[in-house]
Amino acid sequence: MSAAVTLILGGAASGKSAFAENICTSADKPRVYWATSQILDQEMRAKVTKHLAQRGSGWTTHEEPLEASRVLPDLPADAICLMDCATMWLTNHLLAEHDLEAETQNLLQAIDACPAELVIVSNETGLGIVPENALARRFREAQGRLNIALAARADTVVQVTAGLPLVLKGTLP
User: How crowded is the C-beta side of 105, counted as CA atoms within 13 Å?
Assistant: First the structure.
């Protein structure tokens, strides 16, 4: 049986990452951070720097933008891992023109093989208007499907809005 999985959903700048980090730091376990972003410009570099400062010390970081199987199965069972975030992971695969269904299945298999407790941050992108271009519409649809798959697998699902958590499934650890 795999370890507990918590999915944290929210819009951009909703407080979901800070909320997820608080779950991890209060767990009194070795903390692992799985960074899925790729630093391709100054704006992303600034965002990563902000997240590093916000997180503080005491984390082991794995920078892996695509392959969950390179991170999750080898984590120690007594650890807690924060994946921040599933949205960047999906974006990386979408822009690389990978098979999103196959990659999602690979991610879910890696989650199932993960011996550590896992906290996943993901953006809720379906609450706005319909995007005006095909790529953005494809992304929004793929993100919705990914969130549904992650929520089905998760023991706990929390929606964070304006820094406030609403438990949608399960109970907070």
Answer: 5
Q: Residue 112: which domain range?
A: 33-169
Nearest one of 38, 50, 55 to 94, comparing CA atoms: 38
Which active-site residues does the annotation give?
51
Which of helix, strand or coil describes residue 172? coil
Q: Are 47 and 83 in contact (CB under 8 A)?
A: no
The residue type of 109 is Q
SS3 45: helix
Answer yes or no: are the C-beta atoms of 33 and 84 closer than 8 Å: yes
Q: Is the pTM of this model over 0.85?
A: yes
SS3 for 17? helix
Count structural domains, the chain. 1
Q: How far apart are the C-alpha atoms of 140 and 92, rounded to whole Å?
A: 14
Q: What is the pLDDT of residues 4-19, one digit of tens each?
A: 999 999 998 999 999 9
Q: What angle do CA 47, 53, 55 make, to 5 degrees?
A: 100
